[in-house]
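=== RUN LOG ===
request id: a7f3
mode: sequence -> structure
chains: 1
length: 87
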Amino acid sequence: MFKSVITGTGAYIPEAIRLNESFINSTFYEESGLRVPNTPQTIIEKFKKITGIAERRYIPDELNASDMATEAGREALEQSGIDPETL
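=== RESULT ===
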């Protein structure tokens, strides 16, 4: 029987932050395409109350998901003490 051990973890957290308040001048629409009748402030407050989300992070345009995974993997290897050159 094989056994797995997690020896390191990694993450990539983008630096660009947009707070919920940055959407205050946005118009929100329902799936049907109709405008949501509530004010943006009301929608933002309800969203935060329901989800707990107060901000979003965005990656630069020149990066993609595999770039984020590469950085997270590199961090996990460093944390584990494993030299990727020996793999």
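=== NOTES ===
The chain is about 30% helix and 10% strand.
The mean pLDDT is 93.
=== END ===
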